[in-house]
Design goal:
mainly alpha, Hydantoin permease, P-loop_NTPase, transmembrane
């Protein structure tokens, strides 16, 4: 319905007071904008004047006001006179919101034919192809205004799809939701440092106050570097009746000094000290400690199941699998580390899922990771029970008692909330597993020598006709011994120099290849086809008890690390915007201890209550771990790291390698599921399934 003439004149008069472009007046009259001068003065006027604006408050029609301000600021000269550079970037938390802003901008810019607006689609390749199309078809020009999510904007910039030399404005819309969705301050700082130049205006809009507290607390945006040419202003539409514009103090070199009258919940000195101590606490991990943490996660009693895999596969195939799968694991971990460097805001594997699939991917990958970590803790709890029964050789004590003791030890070892604090236990873990393997090799070697090594029944090729299920279970034992990538994002998030991660993965990878190959080949050569799993059971009753006792630190330290990773993920999400997340306050420690207690009890209950827990663990490993370590990293390379076409000269070899790794991961997924399901059916058929909370052997 057309507006009455007097209302249109009133709107135009209000807009003219800000000296807006004539083209915008016509568009605004159709949107009923301009009636209330207070909103113009609060938001549009500071932006139009070139100030860096911090706009807080869920005021009406905020996106329309932002678009008006942006269209007023950018150059609207003839296309032939305009540089082929983007003039304004609008960063939105989701694709849906970005598309909404795109619709508003296109509608308002309809009277400004020289202004090109573009919204990045959901996929990185689609974004590249569309921008390339625009560059080729519109006189070599990129869009004047580009809208997208942080990940897409970051990709367009870092891959050179967008040139930002002439960038006039950088706008963060719904900053609070951007932070809530996993794009933490380091990612936003990366965007700022890359695209914001001395002439670039920065506008940040948020609905809630907690975002401001978070930015000021962590001092990550470092706005001081953008406030040299003009003063900063803040708009707080939630104060009073929507009127409340006040200038902020000039930022000091070491951070912001917000006006406490405008933002009453600014930090006090005590909170600032807590934050500084917390940040220091969680950035102490170097590449050597990272290697130790990966050893805790990767090298456990699973190494002693590899000789039985050699018995199924034969010596030649066993060695090839150990070396080949080890190299694949190193490569996929390299991809994960590169993703972390390219996207510093990725704190856990779930955040990587968010980059690939948005909010759904974040939640799905987070659930998969937590479930797998809880199951692994439960598995170590059961392994501890088996170890206690074997060491004590007691049939008079209920197995549940041993499992409770194991759960308590796992809980106590999970108390450290920092991986750097946990790393010192890694040295004990490593010495423990090497000693257990060494004792097993020496003992089986002595036994083999006494009976004559020439009589040992080992073979270079598979003996008999092993079934597909048996062969694949053997391969799976080797595959899952190399799956250390699922926690790499979490560990790297604590590194003070993340780029050093390559030293860690090569050190660990080579160490694993040597240990697994030597352990599998020598013990298989000493024992032959009768080798048991774990192999220390083949060392004789007394020696196996000693080896189990020495291996106890491995069992419990490796199990505790899963609880800590899951706890850090959950605790960080719950208290993302609070100093409680640093676990250096009374509330922080209480909530942390409560959380790891809940996780440990949950893992113990699942392990004891599910009759076929071992096979269920195999299923979840086939579903989740194969993805985390094998078929998902190639997908990350293709969508997050690849630059240029996959078939280009510089990408063709890596494309083929990643295709092979992806197919290998899918084979592990399908074969592992099939073998595990077959094993469950066989166990139920033979009655080899223990009852929940049984006192018998587990």
């Amino acid at each position: 319905m057309p507006r009455p003439p007097y209302e249109q004149k009133k709107s135009e008069a209000a807009a003219l007071e800000l000296s807006l472009k004539p083209e915008l007046l016509q568009a605004m009259s159709l949107w009923n904008l301009g009636d209330d001068l207070s909103y113009y003065h609060q938001l549009v006027h500071p932006i139009v004047q070139g100030h860096h604006v911090l706009a807080q408050g869920p005021f009406p029609l905020k996106r329309m006001y932002l678009v008006v301000s942006i269209l007023q600021r950018i150059k609207t000269a003839a296309p032939s006179d305009t540089p082929s550079r983007c003039q304004a970037l609008i960063v939105s938390p989701t694709f849906e919101l970005a598309w909404t802003v795109n619709g508003i901008a296109r509608t308002m810019a309809s009277a400004m034919p020289s202004v090109k607006v573009y919204c990045c689609p959901r996929g990185f390749r689609d974004a590249h192809d569309r921008i390339a199309e625009l560059q080729g078809s519109e006189m070599g020009r990129v869009p004047d205004i580009v809208i997208g999510t942080p990940g897409l904007i970051w990709q367009c910039i870092t891959r050179g799809w967008l040139q930002t030399d002439a960038l006039e404005m950088l706008v963060f819309e719904e900053m609070d939701e951007i932070l809530d969705r996993g794009y933490d301050e380091s990612v936003l700082l990366g965007i700022l440092q890359t695209v914001a130049h001395g002439h670039t205006q920065v506008v940040v809009q948020s609905d809630s106050l907690h975002m401001w507290r978070r930015i000021w607390k962590l001092n990550r945006l470092q706005t001081a570097q953008f406030t040299m040419s003009c003063p900063s202003e803040t708009v707080d539409a939630s104060v009073g009746n929507g009127a409340g514009v006040g200038k902020m103090d000039t930022p000091k070199p070491n951070g912001w000094s917000p006006d406490s009258k405008m933002l009453p919940d600014a930090l006090d000195d005590g909170e600032q000290q807590i934050i500084e101590a917390g940040e220091a606490k969680y950035h102490r991990l170097g590449w050597k400690r990272l290697t130790i943490m990966l050893i805790i996660e990767a090298i456990g009693l699973g190494a002693l199941s590899i000789p039985s895999a050699f018995a199924s596969l034969g010596m030649v195939a066993g060695v090839i699998c150990c070396v080949g799968i080890g190299l694949i694991a190193i490569y996929t971990s390299w991809i994960i580390g590169k993703v972390k460097l390219a996207f510093p805001g990725v704190r856990h594997y779930g955040d990587a899922g968010g980059l690939l699939m948005g909010r759904v991917g974040n939640e799905l990958f987070t659930f998969m990771l937590i479930l797998q970590l809880v199951f692994l803790t439960g598995s170590n709890c059961l392994t501890g029970t088996i170890a206690w029964r074997h060491i004590t050789d007691s049939n008079n004590v209920c197995s549940v008692v041993f499992s409770v003791v194991s759960a308590i030890i796992l809980l106590l070892l999970s108390i450290p909330s920092s991986f750097a604090d946990m790393a010192w236990l890694g040295y004990i873990d490593f010495v423990s597993i090497v000693a257990a393997i060494g004792i097993t090799i020496i003992s089986t070697g002595i036994q083999g020598t006494q009976s004559g090594l020439s009589k040992v029944d080992w073979s270079a090729l598979p003996q008999g006709d092993p079934s597909f299920s048996d062969a694949f279970i053997a391969i799976s034992n080797i595959v899952f011994a190399y799956t250390f990538a699922s926690c790499l994002f979490s560990f790297m998030d604590e590194m003070h120099t993340p780029k050093d991660f390559t030293k860690s993965i090569w050190t660990l990878g080579i160490l694993q290849i040597v240990i697994y190959t030597v352990t599998g080949a020598t013990i298989y050569a000493f024992v032959g086809q009768e080798v048991e799993s774990p192999a220390l059971l083949s060392a004789g009753s007394l020696v196996s008890k000693i080896a189990f006792g020495i291996a106890l630190p491995v069992i419990f330290i490796s199990g505790a690390i899963g609880t800590i990773v899951a706890g850090r993920l959950i605790h960080g999400r719950i208290y993302e915007n609070s100093v409680t997340r640093y676990v250096n306050t009374t509330k922080g420690w209480i909530t942390w201890l409560a959380l790891i207690t809940i996780l440990t009890i949950l893992a113990w209950v699942i392990a004891e209550a599910v009759p076929f827990f071992d096979d269920l663990l195999s299923i979840t490993s086939a579903l989740f771990t194969s993805g985390f370590s094998f078929y998902l990293p190639p997908v990350m390379w293709f969508f997050l790291l690849r630059k240029g076409e996959w078939y280009s000269r510089e990408n063709l070899l890596l494309s083929l390698v990643n295709l092979f790794v992806f197919i290998f991961g899918l084979v592990v997924l399908v074969g592992g599921l099939y073998s595990s399901i077959q094993d469950i059916r066989n166990n139920y058929r033979t009655g080899n399934v223990h009852s929940p909370f049984t006192c018998g052997a587990v």
